[in-house]
Amino acid sequence: MTVTRRPTRRDVVRGVAVIAAALPQPSFAQASPRVAVIGGGFGGAACARALRRLDPKLQVTLIEPNRTFVACPFSNEVIAGLRELSEQQFGYDRIAADGVAVVAQAAAKVDAHARTIGLADGSTLPYDRLVLSPGIDMRFDAMPGYDEAASAKMPHAWKAGEQTALLRRQIEAMNDGGLVVIAVPAAPLRCPPAPYERAGLIAHYLKTKKPRSKILILDAKDNYSQQKLFENAWQELYPGMIERVALSQGGRVTSVNPATNEIVTDFGNYTADVANVIPPQRAGHIAAIAGAADHTGWCPIDPVTFASKLVPDIHVIGDACIAGGIPKSASAAGAQGEACAAAIVNAFAGKPPDTPRLNGACYNTVAPGYAFSLRGIYQPRDDQYAEAEVTTSPVEATREVRRREAEQALDWFQTITVNTFG
Amino acid sequence: MPSALINVPAKAKRGDIIEIKTLMSHIMETGYRHTASGEVVPRDIITSFTCRYNGTEIFRTDLYPAIAANPFITFFTTVTESGKFEFEWIGDKGFSETASASITVE
C-alpha cells in the first residue's frame, strides 16, 4: 500500500504508522487486495471486521474522523434522562486489534476511476474496492428556516452526540406546562419508528417531572411502523399527553423560525417551548462526492453484492443505500456490512456471490420496562430488498410481555455493540 | 377530525396576491385495483373542486384517478374586496363536501 505522505502534522504521521504496522510487507501487497471502508458506524465497522475475519490476507482500512463513535439506538433514552451519553460511546481499539488500519481522518474526495481516496490532510489512499458506509446527512436546504445554525436552537438529535445532549438540556430546562413539538419528515429517514419512540420516552420524563406539559408530533407521513402498538401504549401510559397531526390532517412542516421557535405547516402555526425538528435526510455527503448517490440523495445498489449501480468498485451499505424494504437501522447496517464483506471476499476469490438473507431487529421502548419490536428477514427480489418474513409484537399483550421485550432490547444493544466494537 | 382543511389569510390589502391552500381527506380509489379474489375495487374519487368568491366562481379543477389520496390543492388569487370564499368538492358515490373562509380586505 502506498500513501502519499505529507508528514507535516502529527496525526498524519500516526495514521500512516498505523497503516504501515497493520499491513503485510510491500512485497506481498500486490497479492493482497486493498479494501477501504469509509464510515465507522454500525455498517462500516461490522464490514471492516468481517472482511478481516473472512480473509485475513486482506488489507483493510477504516476511514473515520471521530475517535469515538456515538450510537443512535438507545439515544432516545438519553434525551429522556434515563441513560447517559457515555453509555452510547464506543472506540475503535478492538477493530484496530483485528488488523484493520483505522485512519482518524475524514475522506474529502473519491476518484472512482483512479480508485483513490483523498483524505482531509491532502494525502491519497489507493484501493481495489471501496465500501461507503457514510450514514446520513441532514438536508439543511430542504426546509425553509432550518439550516445548520437553526439546529443549535431547534435540535434534530438525529445523529447521536452533542445534539442528543442539547435536546435533553432543553427539555430539562422547560417549564411545567410547556409544549414539545417533534417535526417528522417524510420517508425515507433513518430509523423510521424512532420519532414515536422519542415521543413516548419524552412523555415519560414529562409525566414524572412536568405533568402539565404536552407533546405535539407534526408528521409528514400518514402511517408509520408499529403505529397501533405506539398509539395503544401512549393511551395506556400517557393519556392526553401526546397529540399527532398526520400528513392528511395538515401535519407536514413547511418552514420554521428558530428565532421565535415557530413551526409552520400548510394549515397551522405552532410555537414550541422545545422544538425537535427532524429534517429530511440524504446519504452522507461523501457518497455524492464519489458519484454513488442519485437524484434522490440516496445510493442505488445491487442487492446481492451492495455494489453501486452508478460507479465501479464501490459498494454502499447502511442508511446511505437504497435497500427497498429494509428499514434504515443499526441492525440492518451491521447485517449489510457483513453481507457486503462476504460479497467482496467472493469477488476477489473469483466466486459467484451468495444471495444474502439479512436479519433486522428494531426495538422500541415507550417507558422503562415497556418495549415492543419488529423483526424482519429480508432477501433480494426483483433487484430490490423485500421482506421475506416480518414479526411484530402482538398489539394485545400483558405488561410482562412488554417488560421482557424491554430486557431483550437491552440485550440486543449489548450484543450488537460488542459484536461491532468490542 | 375535519375532512376539509383550508388556509386563507384572515386579512389582506386590496390588490394583494394571496395563496389559498386546501386539503380534502379522501381515499381516491383509482378503479384499477383488484382484491385478492380478483374483483375490481370500484372507482371512488373526487371528480371536481370549485372555489367561489362572493358567489362568483374563481377557480375550478377536475380530478382524475392518477391523483393521490387526500388531494392537496393550492392556488393564488388577487383580492379586491372583503368577502367569503366557498369551496366545494364533488365526487363518485354521491360525494359532496363544502367549506368556507372569510377574508377582510383593508
Which secondary structure elements does this structure contain, and how are they paired or packed?
The complex is a heterodimer of chains A (422) and B (106).
Chain A lengths: L9 H13 L3 H4 L4 E5 L3 H13 L4 E5 L4 E3 L4 H5 L9 E3 L1 H5 L3 E3 L3 E5 L4 E4 L4 E3 L2 E4 L3 E3 L23 H12 L5 E6 L9 H16 L4 E6 L7 H11 L4 E4 L7 E5 L4 E4 L3 E3 L2 E4 L3 E3 L1 H5 L9 E2 L13 E3 L4 E2 L7 H19 L9 E10 L2 E12 L2 E9 L6 H23 L1
Parallel strand pairs in A: 1-2, 1-9, 2-5, 9-20, 11-12, 11-17, 12-13, 19-21
Antiparallel strand pairs in A: 3-4, 6-7, 7-8, 10-18, 14-15, 15-16, 22-23, 23-24
Helix pairs in contact in A: 3-10, 3-11, 7-8
Chain B lengths: L3 E4 L3 E2 L4 E8 L21 E8 L2 E7 L9 E7 L4 E9 L4 E10 L1
CATH architecture of the largest domain in chain A: 3-Layer(bba) Sandwich
Q: Oligomerization state of this entry?
A: heterodimer
Rg of chain B, Cα atoms, Å: 16 Å
| CATH C-level class of the largest domain in chain A | Alpha Beta
Name some characteristics of this structure:
heterodimer; A: 422 residues; alpha/beta; FAD/NAD(P)-binding domain; 2 domains; five-stranded parallel sheet; four-stranded parallel sheet; B: 106 residues; mainly beta; Immunoglobulin-like; five-stranded mixed sheet; 8 strands; 0% helix
Descriptive account of the structure:
- The complex is a heterodimer of chains A (422) and B (106).
- Chain A folds into two domains: 34-138 and 281-353, FAD/NAD(P)-binding domain (3-Layer(bba) Sandwich), CATH 3.50.50.60; 150-277, FAD/NAD(P)-binding domain.
- The longest helix of chain A is centred in the last third of the chain and has 23 residues, at 399-421.
- Mean pLDDT of chain A is 93; it is low at 1-29.
- Chain A contains eleven helices and 24 strands.
- In chain A, helix 3 (42-54) packs parallel to helix 10 and helix 7 (194-209) packs parallel to helix 8.
- By secondary structure, chain A is an alpha/beta fold.
- Chain B is an all-beta fold and 106 residues long.
- Chain B has a single domain (4-105), classed as Immunoglobulins (Immunoglobulin-like), CATH 2.60.40.
- Helix content of chain B is 0%, strand content 52%.
- Chain B contains no helices and eight strands.
- Classes of the chains: A alpha/beta (422), B mainly beta (106).
- The A-B interface holds A 222, 247-250, 266-267 and B 1, 5-7, 21, 23, 25, 69-70, 72, 74.
